[in-house]
Amino acid sequence: MISSKVAPRAEGQREMLSEGRLEAAPPSEAGPSWAAGPPSERLPPLGQEAPPPLRCHTDCLEAPLSRCFLRLGASVGTHPWLFLLGPALLTAALGTGLLFLPKEKENLEEQYTPIGSPAKAERRFVQSHFSTNDTYRFSASRTSSEANFASILVVSLTNSLLEPRIFTEVSKLDRAVQALKVVQENGTQILYKEVCAKYKTLCVPPNPLLHAWQHNSTLDLSNLMFPIHNLPNRLIYLAGFFGGNVLGETMGKNQRLVESRAMRLLYYLKTEDPEDSERSKAWLTHFLDHFKDMKSTLSLEQTEVFRKLGFIREANKGGRFGDEVVFELKLGMLACAWYEIPL
């Protein structure tokens, strides 16, 4: 015997059909086919239409990039040694071109100032209105380009170097520096008086006060004014040549120079003419090589002496060009290898 059970609701609907009185159930009483399933799959209510699908994609740039990086990652994972050794070998091959660069290039303006830059235009304006000539009318305050020079710093072992005995020692050092000469391979000599920057027919003095004392040893060093001292026939500017100063009473725009611990000697050389510039560099190199021997020969007792060259010469006086190139190559290869190592 086969029996069947009908749900009460279904049985009621059958009765309504049989009586011709079947009515649509309200939406709140919809059957399982209306409300079953996730919200995204439900049918919209009667009388309402589903909104059209969005046509704007926010990943229009992200999606292709993700695919590209996915392929790149797969390639790196499949062939790791190619991506590790390839950049290193390429860097080593291209880096050998550094060996063909000039060994020395001592022109800061050409290397670091762009062509047609405002700095070059301003420099041309300064040169046209404040001209100088290092063979006849040199002025350190009017120079508009890098000049060759040697600087010696003299530091007193006492409280002050404004004493005749210390000036005598410094004067001996100055004469030894100006007596240096370079003997070239062809036998010609390069003297300081030939390569020094000149004002009229004389070399520019390395220190104005020392120069005045050398011509008048009776100059009273205990009665000096700073920064401008008035000599009987001219004015001398002391700022920039003396350090560790102790100033006293004020007289007008100046003050009395009581003590000074350090003195600077500046030896300016010719730079404007290329031939003179090369001779000046040769003299500077000779000065650098023989400075320690010269200082030990003088047996200075009252002062300590330190030397400094012009910025370019100081930057290039040490180190070998080949070592710098090898270091740059190693650094580039290490950077490439580190960048390609997966973390």
TrEMBL record:
Residues that span the membrane, as ranges: none
Region annotated Disordered, chain positions: 1-50
Gene Ontology cellular component terms for the protein in this record: membrane
Compositionally biased intervals (Basic and acidic residues): 11-22
Source domain of life: Eukaryota
Name under which the protein is recorded: Patched domain-containing protein 3
